[in-house]
Structures are given as C-alpha cells and as structure tokens.
Amino acid sequence: MSANTVSGGTSKDVVRVAATSDVHCKRGSTGALRPLFIEIAEQADILLLCGDLTHFGLIDEISVFLDDAAPALKKIPVLSVLGNHDFEAGKQDEIRKVLTEAGVLMLDGNDQEVLGIGFTGVKGFGGGFGDRSLQPWGEKTIKNFVKEAVDEANKLETGLNKLDPGPRMVLLHYAPISGTVIGEPPEIFPFLGSSRLEEPLNRHAVTAAFHGHAHKGQWQGRTGADVPVYNVSVSVLRTHFPARRPYIIVEVPVE
Question: What is the CB neighbour count within 10 angstroms for residue 254?
C-alpha cells in the first residue's frame, strides 16, 4: 500500500472508529470540548474529524481546538479534513500545518493506513444532488463552481485508487448524498454537498463515509450502492442522541 502506516498498540480484530465534526472552536471556548475528547480517547481506537474545527478559520481558534483535543491526540490516531469555516480567513494552509505538527493526520486526496484500515478524504464542495445537480453551463462563474466540485471528487478518486482492498473509510466535510441533509431547508441543499462525491464511494465499495456541514440533517443514510454515510455534525448528533456526547463509533472488523 502506498499509504503512510500508523500503528496504535496491539493488533485488534475489531477497531473502534469514532467520528465527529463541526465543533466550531472560537477564541473564548477553551475547555468546552475537552470532556468530549477525554471520553473519545477512552472509548475509541481512532478519531475522525470532518472539518469546521474552527469558526472563523483563525490560528487562535485552532490553538483552542488543539488544547481541548489534547487527551485524544496523546492517546489515539486522529485523522481530519478541513471544512469551509476553516477556509474563512484564508489561513487554511497555516491551519493544516499547525494540525499536522500537532500529530493530526490531514487528508486532502492522500491516503493513510491506520490499524489495518485505509483512509482517504477531501473537503468536498457543493453543487446539489442527483438530476438537480448544477451543470457547467452558462457563465464562467457557474463553470468554476462546478469545476471545484469535480476537482474535489477527482481528488477523492485518486485517494481511493491508492488504497488496497480491505476496510476503506472516507472523510468529507460536504455531503455526498441528499439523505443525510434532509431536515435542512431544501433551498440550501445545493450548498451542502454534491452527488459527484458519491460516485467514487460507490465505485470503490467504501466501508463507510463520514461528513459534517449539514447541521440540521439526518445522522445516517446510504449511497445508491448501499455504502453507509454518517453525518457527524455535533448539532445533528446532539439532536438525535441528546443523552450522550456528540460522536459516533463504528466498529470495523480487520484482519
């Protein structure tokens, strides 16, 4: 496998993969998320973060995030993609560098193998779903919008092509299917994700895909080829599971 390989202690028959997203750290939110990451570190073998770690895309905010996430970072492998909020201040490259230096395995069309599971991921982009997807027709601005979604889907395809057969998981920020954004106003569906991200998931028989971004959507759905998709936005998980902390765990059998 071309992926970087990360070990995490003794071999396991089942790996517990935790996922969450859209924590939106702000300068003044120090400590608010620390209990979440303490619990995840105790319950999971791997943590996936599906973007919007910050609210305004500021370095001060990512510092707050890293301080709160320290209990997980010190104990288990953490993988992440960036979200649209992480791009807000134009400091996404700096944020990615700071996260990488802190030990987070950043995904943007590259691949990683962790505890026998192959991972890849991209931020993704909008454009809508199914027959209503935006097409590259008319003004240059529309064509550029569609090109961004196509480019993100192509990066995802590249990452998946590098992974060996076996358990394969995908991190996204934008949704690959409409099923996990239902509950949001229909008028904003085109800005929540794109079916172009679904196509690589189906072609490569992905074990599971995770995304955020849609704060009022559904927590789970399936692609046309029956790939499980999980919306792990903290807002969605708090709505669906109000009695526990906002993350999910997927158990993955590995050889």
Answer: 13
* Number of other residues whose CB lies within 10 A of the CB of residue 18: 24
pLDDT in tens, 107-134: 999 999 999 999 999 999 999 999 889 9
Torsion angle in degrees (nearest 10) through CA of 69, 39, 216, 62 = 0
For the domain spanning 13-253, the CATH number is 3.60.21.10
Residue 9 has pLDDT above 50, yes or no: no
Other residues' Cβ atoms within 10 Å of the Cβ of residue 179: 16
Sign of CA dihedral 169, 68, 23, 154: negative
Stated pTM of the model = 0.94
* Sequence ranges of the domains in the chain: 13-253
H/E element holding 142? helix 140-162
63: nearest Cα among 52, 54, 73, 75: 54
